[in-house]
Each structure stands twice: as C-alpha cells, then as structure tokens.
Amino acid sequence: MGINLKTACSHTKIYQQGVNNFIAFAFENSAVGSKILCPCRKCVNSFWREGSEVREHSICDGFLKGYRTWTLQGEVSSSLNHGNYDGVELMEETDEDDNISDLLRDLAAGLDDKGDFDDNNSDLEPCEELVAIQKLVAENSKELYPVRS
C-alpha cells in the first residue's frame, strides 16, 4: 500500500496521510455500511468502526503487528511462485482462517456494535442457527490469551 505504516512515526504528516489513504482504500473495498474493521493493536481486526475511530486508533495505538497485507480491508495478497530454486522448494503462504474471517464479516453486516442483530420485530424468537452465529461472532472477538497487568 505504499507507505509502511507499521514502522513510520505516527506524528508525521506522511504517516497520517498513509492512514487516510488506508481508510479510503478500506472503505472502497471492504466496508460494511459505514464501518470497516479496525487494524489497530487493540481492536486487532475484530471490531467494526467508523472511519474517524479507525483513524484515531491507528494514530494513537498503531497498526496490528505483523499485519502486512490488508486482506481484511480488501487488499489482494500476492502469492509466492511455486518454483524450485537450488533444490529448495518454496511453499505458498496461507491464511488458514481466511474463509472464517470472510464468513464472520458477512454475518456481521447485520450486527450492531453490541453484537445484537438490529431487528425491529422483537416479538420473534431467534432460530437456533441465528443463536449459533451470534455465539460464533462473540467468541471470535475474545482474546485467546488475555494480557495480565
């Protein structure tokens, strides 16, 4: 995406312009309504945020460490060539959870910030599949290894 937002100083104009370009790119390629996944170190692509929140988080908290190709924001990853160089076979880099992330992003399109479906018909009981999907979305945003203070 041009500027290396992972290593640039967040107080510089070039970094802030890079963040603005990133947000514009993400909205063009992966927005759900008026929100995109926030790639900051705290949200770790688990929370949908407005552009202004993503900008603030990206500048104040920085980008998620190691997130080089913004696949969740619509950037296409380049795959390695399957050639054989000096007897060493290169393996293609894979993201095993790509399908799950896409599925959860599609499912989250109907969710509000609290993880509840925005439905005006409160007298209808949710079906088993809906409850299971809501549980998956909630579990996806939990930390695997909580940070201890």
Number of strands: 4
Determine the strand fraction and express it as a percent band. Answer: 5-15%
Mean pLDDT level: 71
Largest sheet, strands/sense/barrel: 2 strands, antiparallel
Q: Which strand order do you get reading across the main beta sheet?
A: 1-2
Percentage of helical residues? Answer: 25-40%
Radius of gyration: 18 Å
Tally of separate helices: 4
Describe what you observe in this structure.
By secondary structure, the protein is mainly alpha-helical. The protein folds into two domains: 61 residues, no CATH class; 45 residues, no CATH class. The chain contains four helices and four strands. The strands form two sheets. The chain has a two-stranded antiparallel sheet. A two-stranded antiparallel sheet has the order 3-4. The chain starts with 12 loop residues before the first helix and ends in a 9-residue tail after the last helix.
What are the salient characteristics of this protein?
149 residues, mainly alpha, 2 domains, two-stranded antiparallel ribbon
Give a concise summary.
This protein is mainly alpha-helical and 149 residues long.
Topology of helices and strands:
Blueprint: H1 13-30, E1 36-37, E2 48-49, H2 51-60, E3 84-85, E4 88-89, H3 98-108, H4 128-140
Antiparallel strand pairs: 1-2, 3-4
Helix pairs in contact: 1-2
